[in-house]
């Protein structure tokens, strides 16, 4: 099986991001894989999100998607006025846009392709992947505020996730999404020989880059959740874990499990490379036996 994947397209961020996505679409069209996976953060704007995925509606392969934190942002006035929350985007609006474009909403149900089952979730952060070297300076409440001096983690402004009328904490949301992934894995391992897990948030500490400096390592606390990785490693049939969010490509090997990212990221992070070069670099191909 030939599997292509990427993440963090951010096509509502800069024209260069859109150009890189167009180049990826051209590459996928010229040589379609068996499965294409996007690990989230397409666009916060729902029109841009839909148009981005629709560019691959014609692609003759399985197309799988899990949302990222930017995809569930609610920042448009008309969304707020209509009572749209991040929770509703996650469970109702994004699945509808995915299906219209021919993408399977993997975070809602697993997908079996031959002898391989795919499971997925956006995941969330609970500060468990933070740099613990700063625990004497930063408490959990410091992370819960999502503000370091004048710098703000934007989920504080744009993520609205109520439960019974009250916002969920990051820890509660992370726990719910880990539980949902666990249910998928239980279902999938009964139906397939090999499993692939797709998340947006990072599941393993080894995938997080700590710079040993603030404020960079303050924000690394929002990279993912160790319980995601624990849920994945409890299932020996999982051979591959794909993720996004970090904007840094990486590959780590944990026993028989390989975990990878291949994000496009923001144009200002490309170190002078062109959209075409980034499309070639960050549309990654994996072969599954």
Task: Describe the structure in your own words.
The protein has 289 residues and is an alpha/beta fold. The chain has a single domain, classed as Purple Acid Phosphatase, chain A, domain 2 (4-Layer Sandwich), CATH 3.60.21. The protein is built from ten helices and 15 strands. The chain has helices at 15-30, 46-54, 77-81, 86-100, 140-144, 155-158, 170-188, 216-219, 226-233, 275-282; strands spanning 2-6, 35-38, 62-65, 104-105, 111-113, 116-121, 147-148, 151-152, 162-163, 166-167, 194-199, 238-243, 250-254, 257-261, 284-287. The model has no long low-confidence stretch (mean pLDDT 95).
CATH class label:
Alpha Beta
Q: Measure the end-to-end span.
A: 6 Å
Shape: globular
**CATH topology-level name:** Purple Acid Phosphatase, chain A, domain 2
Note the main sheet: 6 strands, mixed
CATH superfamily: Metallo-dependent phosphatases
Helix coverage percent: 25-40%
Order of helices and strands: EHEHEHHEEEHEEHEEHEHHEEEHE
Assign the CATH architecture: 4-Layer Sandwich
Low-confidence stretches: none
Strand tally is: 15
Q: Report the sheet-strand fraction.
A: 15-25%
Q: How many domain regions?
A: 1
* Sheet with most strands: strand arrangement: 5-6-11-12-14-13
Overall pLDDT score: 95
**What is the rounded Rg?**
18 Å
Structural class: alpha/beta
Provide key terms for this protein:
20% strand; six-stranded mixed β-sheet; 32% helix; Purple Acid Phosphatase, chain A, domain 2; 289 residues
């Amino acid at each position: 099986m030939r599997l292509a994947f990427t993440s963090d397209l951010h096509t509502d961020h800069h024209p260069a991001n859109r150009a890189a996505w167009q180049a990826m679409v051209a590459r996928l069209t010229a040589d379609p894989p068996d499965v294409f996976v996007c690990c989230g953060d397409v666009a916060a704007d729902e029109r841009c999100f839909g148009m981005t995925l629709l560019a691959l509606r014609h692609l003759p392969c399985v197309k799988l998607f899990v949302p990222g934190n930017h995809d569930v942002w609610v920042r448009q006035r008309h969304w707020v006025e209509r009572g749209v929350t991040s929770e509703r985007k996650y469970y109702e609006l994004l699945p509808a846009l995915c299906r219209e474009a021919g993408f399977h909403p993997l975070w809602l149900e697993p997908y079996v392709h031959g002898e391989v089952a795919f499971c997925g979730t956006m995941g969330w952060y609970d500060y468990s992947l933070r740099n613990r070297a700063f625990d004497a300076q930063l408490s959990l409440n410091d992370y819960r505020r999502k503000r370091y001096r004048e710098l703000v983690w934007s989920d504080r402004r744009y993520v609205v996730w109520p439960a019974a009328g009250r916002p969920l904490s990051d820890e509660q949301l992370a726990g719910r999404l880990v539980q949902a992934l666990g249910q998928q894995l239980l279902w999938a391992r009964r139906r397939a020989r090999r499993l692939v897990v797709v998340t947006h948030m990072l599941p393993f500490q080894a995938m997080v880059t700590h710079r040993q400096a603030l404020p960079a390592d303050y924000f690394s606390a929002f990279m993912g959740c160790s319980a995601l990785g624990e849920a994945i490693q409890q299932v020996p049939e999982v051979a591959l874990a794909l993720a996004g969010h970090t904007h840094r490509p990486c590959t780590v090997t944990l026993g028989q499990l390989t975990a990878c990212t291949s994000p496009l990221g923001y144009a200002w992070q490309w170190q002078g490379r062109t959209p075409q070069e980034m499309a070639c670099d960050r549309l990654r191909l994996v072969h599954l036996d």
